[in-house]
Amino acid sequence: MAERVLIIEDEEDIRENLAFSLKREGFEALEAASGEQGLELARSGKPAIILLDLMLPGMDGLSVCRHLKQAASTAAIPIIMLTAKGEEIDKIVGFELGADDYVVKPFSLREVVLRIRAVLRRGREETYTSEVNSGALTLDAVRHQAWAGDRELDLTLSEFKLLQNLLQHAGQVRSREQLLDAVWGYSFEGYARSVDSHIKRLRAKLGPHGELIETVRGIGYRVKSKS
Ligand code: CA
């Protein structure tokens, strides 16, 4: 079955071009011209992924993203933000909002399609791995749940994938590049800081168990092995 992409974008030309290209690539496209309409379609249309414009009239993209990530029915849907040059990338890709990726305007339609495929592929690969744990940390990819001790964690999709990758390699150092590749499917300059932001946020959510994620200076991060 064709995977459904929800496009939330007020600029009609961009929205229609995206929908046209996506359909040509074998996707199904849902279109929303405002944040409010987008939220509604995210709930009712069950998209596999959402393209979300940052600058929207009325409810802006940041608010829409926050709402999507807070609601249980939409929290697991990956989001790719459409941003203009110069907008604060760190803020968008996760530290505060939990979007999975972003594309800077003006973008090529081909680039957007590649990003969508990368994000969806990551999601699929992770569905096949079972429960992983180390010490007090447990993660179940199939149920999409993670726990620190008895407490269930409320993680964004990126944080979830980051923790999953660290746990799958417990006791080993993971470089920022490896983490980038595992969580986002590719890496390029400027993203390293984004890994640090996600780790910081993840540690905070783990509470006292946050110290299980060690910083390996000059390289990356490691989750302490069970021992
Ligand atoms: Ca716009």
Describe the model.
This protein has 227 residues and is an alpha/beta fold. The chain is built from 8 helices and 12 strands. A hairpin with a 2-residue loop joins strand 8 (145-148) and strand 9. Helix 1 (12-24) crosses helix 5, helix 2 packs parallel to helix 3 and helix 6 crosses helix 8 (192-206). It is globular and about 50 Å long. Bound molecules: calcium ion (CA). Calcium ion is lined by residues 10-11, 53, 55-56.
Q: How large a portion of the residues is in β-strands, by DSSP E?
A: 15-25%
Shape field: globular
Tally the helices: what do you get?
8
Question: What is the CATH class name of the largest domain?
Answer: Alpha Beta
User: What is the name of the CATH architecture of the largest domain?
Assistant: 3-Layer(aba) Sandwich
Q: Which ligands are bound?
A: calcium ion
Residues in helices, as a percent range: 40-55%
Structural class label: alpha/beta
Q: Please state how the strands of the largest beta sheet are arranged side by side.
A: 2-1-3-4-5
List low-confidence stretches: none
Number of strands: 12
